[in-house]
Amino acid sequence: MSLTPRVVVVTRRSEYDEMLATHGTRGQAAFFLSTRGRDIAEVEERHRRLQRAIEVATAAIPVDWRRGVVERSDVSRFLFSPDDVVLVVGQDGLVANVAKYLDGQPVIGVDPEPGHNAGVLVTHAAGDVGDLLRAPGDVRERTMVEARLDDGQRLLALNEIFIGHPSHQTARYDLRTPDGGAESQASSGVIVATGTGATGWCRSVARERHSPLALPTPADPRLVWFVREAWPSPATGTTLTEGELVGTELTLTVQSDRLVAFGDGIEADALSLTWGQTLSIGRSEKVLRLVARGAGLADR
């Protein structure tokens, strides 16, 4: 480890910041919210909690350590170093947003609003950061999913990858499963999820259709996949609509003018798929290294 480690603090603008950027002044933002039956005081209080968590967390970084700060919208352009420690202050989704841009760096998730966020990935309080940086402890790995296009483009995600039409029209493609199954399909798209994603969108799909599939845990190398609303027709089938991937890949060959594949709900960072291209989706060799409760990093 470097004699002077770097802690990179990842944040995102609060709703209050976004309101000011849109409406210009606090008074205009307050008026707009009042027309929607909301009080700006609640938005301001959540903003203060976020700022306080950032202040407490950054104050705990040792004075002789280097530090950097990056906002969510700039993460894709930020150059992370191999020895960085990534300190995410915000919602669980912010950890997923940054995970695809890392390569083994440990992540500390700080929840600025305990009880408001789910706290699945942001499991620590801001006041814990000092101990987490100094005391040796446990860094747990979470499985990630990867999509590879036949032209060499790649996409990583922590929760799930969605493949479908960019405007949510019918997606047409040929699906091939690891056991040799093949079917032409027309559907609302395909989801391939990890154990981390199994607590969100994937779980909703599984519950709605009463799927017998056992969903994976966060560290489980298994992935699960679901086809959304497959449509039966003379040319398309509905027999291959869910399954699991254990060291194997699901393959789709595009039969539409354009489809997209994006991860963790970030549509702006997507692969664009055209007619005849083939996409393979499976477990990534990369993992998210998430600092667990009681863990630390000084002696890693």
From TrEMBL:
Protein keywords: Kinase, Transferase
Superkingdom in the source lineage: Bacteria
One example GO MF annotation: kinase activity
DNA repair as UniProt keyword: no
PANTHER family from the UniProt entry: NAD KINASE 2, MITOCHONDRIAL (PTHR13158:SF5), PTHR13158
Protein name per the record: NAD(+)/NADH kinase
Organism encoding this protein: Nocardioides dubius
Source taxonomy: Bacteria, Bacillati, Actinomycetota, Actinomycetes, Propionibacteriales
